[in-house]
Structure to design on (517 residues):
């Protein structure tokens, strides 16, 4: 991903750090700068030199230094980011670029910028925000800058005019066949592979609850196979960013490309970074059949909806498993039908449980994400969510449901409701970049009752204890007691038992330390 210095046709793209270096937490090195690589397709095809600097590969200071060096004599600079520390690091780097090269055109895109373009544009750091699917928009941005044409004529942009946001003509998501090919030739995967293998036993963000089978080292590769989502979820930014459109790669050429990339880069595991991988069963089935026909089994993990999985034929699920799908993330959201209707999601009844069970029956593990504390959600709804999560833990060992507090996202229908109820949003981009560990916070005072929080914490403790340690031949007494509590929905004296377990663990660590001394 290198370009020659002082090139008038060089484009500099920066992928910000996903985790604050001060936290001391590493994150998975299969999180490659895939979004920037895809928007580079048009410019690379048109003869431009593209240099992508990924903050994940360097210290923060070194990443910013490389960006500044690359911007010397460049045509333009662009960055991206999702909600979390990428927002802060992108801002910090762009501020340095603007200070060093005030005349260099700068742009930003991605999910967060598309949802809240005003937050980016009011900083004065960017000429425009690319809204939504970025490949063709960025291609047109490059052409406009190169020719000195006004950006007002480029569809799909948010501009800052007279102290406010002005949007150019709308640009809808387009078919994957209309997009330029991803320029894999400029991508060096070796640093990611080396760092993955080096940090396999380290603590990092997105650590696998279920690693691929086999108990061995594996090399994981990030891949986009679709854009957007057709669901109207009111807490999610996708409806506004994608316009409820879903565009995807066709199954057969995708299977062919995955096999080619696996041979080229030497990976055996695929992470689909799609907003909704499983919208069309025929495509999911076709991808599996394509891999099987080529004699290629790749471990695969992606995000789907429970209502999709419950609608699949069992033969499709079996083909998925045969092709290597080992893990599916399901958006469980809530255990309450009333709340499902409120957030405009199509899952109903026990579909989350049915989906997790159907996946487990063919050997596919699942991770279900639930949310509590939605605007106007009552306590009864939260208890139903807790009960559904407990039931899944009790019945389906291959499933791992987890509960998160609601997080307001600018530009979503629920955001203004949250503010009206007492949510105080961050004041600037640095603040928006400092909410990565929001799972531990009350979104606003009183949105989650204390009784709910207490049960959530207790259940999380006993679920953690019940999970057998890797390498253990059988459950110990603490594991058996924890499983019994979860299965029986029994919480009397649970807090006392949790404290006893922590004391026991502390004493055991102390004895181990003395023995090793």
């Amino acid at each position: 991903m290198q370009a020659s210095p002082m090139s008038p046709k060089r484009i500099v793209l920066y992928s910000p750090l996903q985790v604050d270096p001060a936290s001391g937490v590493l994150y998975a090195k299969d999180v490659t700068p895939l979004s920037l690589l895809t928007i580079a397709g048009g410019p690379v095809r048109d003869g431009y030199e593209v240099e992508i600097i990924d903050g994940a590969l360097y210290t923060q200071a070194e990443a910013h230094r490389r960006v500044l060096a690359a911007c010397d004599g460049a045509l333009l600079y662009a960055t991206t980011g999702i909600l979390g520390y990428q927002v802060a690091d992108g801002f910090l780097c762009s501020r340095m670029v603007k200070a060093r090269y005030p005349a260099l055109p700068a742009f930003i895109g991605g999910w967060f910028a598309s949802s809240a373009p005003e937050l980016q544009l009011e900083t004065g750091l960017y000429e425009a925000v690319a809204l939504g699917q970025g490949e063709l928009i960025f291609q047109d941005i490059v052409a406009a800058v190169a020719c000195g044409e006004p950006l007002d004529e480029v569809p799909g942009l948010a501009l800052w005019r007279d102290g406010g946001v002005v949007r150019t003509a709308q640009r809808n998501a387009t078919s994957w066949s209309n997009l330029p090919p991803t320029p894999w030739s400029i991508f060096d995967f070796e640093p990611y592979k080396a760092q993955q293998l080096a940090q396999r036993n380290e603590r990092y963000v997105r650590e696998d609850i279920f690693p691929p089978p086999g108990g061995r080292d594996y090399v994981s590769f990030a891949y986009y196979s679709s854009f957007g989502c057709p669901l109207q979820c009111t807490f999610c930014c996708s409806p506004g960013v994608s316009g409820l459109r879903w565009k995807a790669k066709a199954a057969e050429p995708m299977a062919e490309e995955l096999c080619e990339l696996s041979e080229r880069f030497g990976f055996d595991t695929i992470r689909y970074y799609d907003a909704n991988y499983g919208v069309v069963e025929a495509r999911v089935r076709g991808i599996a059949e394509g891999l099987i026909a080529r004699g290629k089994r790749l471990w695969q993990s992606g995000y789907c909806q429970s209502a999709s999985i419950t609608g699949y034929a069992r033969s499709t699920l079996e083909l998925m498993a045969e092709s290597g799908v080992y893990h599916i993330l399901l958006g469980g959201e809530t255990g309450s039908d009333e709340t499902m209707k409120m957030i405009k999601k199509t899952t109903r009844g026990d579909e989350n449980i049915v989906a997790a069970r159907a996946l487990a029956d063919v050997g596919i593990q699942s991770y279900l994400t639930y949310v509590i504390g939605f605007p106007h959600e009552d306590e009864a709804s939260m208890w139903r969510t807790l009960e559904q999560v407990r039931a899944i833990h009790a019945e389906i060992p291959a499933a791992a449901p987890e509960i998160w507090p609601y997080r307001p996202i600018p530009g979503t229908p629920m955001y203004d409701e949250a503010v009206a109820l007492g949510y105080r949003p961050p004041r600037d981009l640095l603040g928006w970049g400092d909410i990565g560990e929001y799972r531990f916070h009350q979104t606003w005072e009183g949105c989650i009752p204390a009784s709910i929080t207490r049960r959530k914490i207790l259940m999380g403790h006993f679920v953690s204890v019940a999970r057998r340690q890797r390498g253990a031949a059988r459950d110990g007494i603490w594991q058996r007691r924890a499983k019994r509590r979860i299965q029986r929905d029994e919480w009397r004296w649970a807090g006392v038992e949790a404290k006893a377990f922590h004391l026991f663990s502390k004493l055991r660590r102390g004895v181990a330390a003395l023995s090793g001394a």
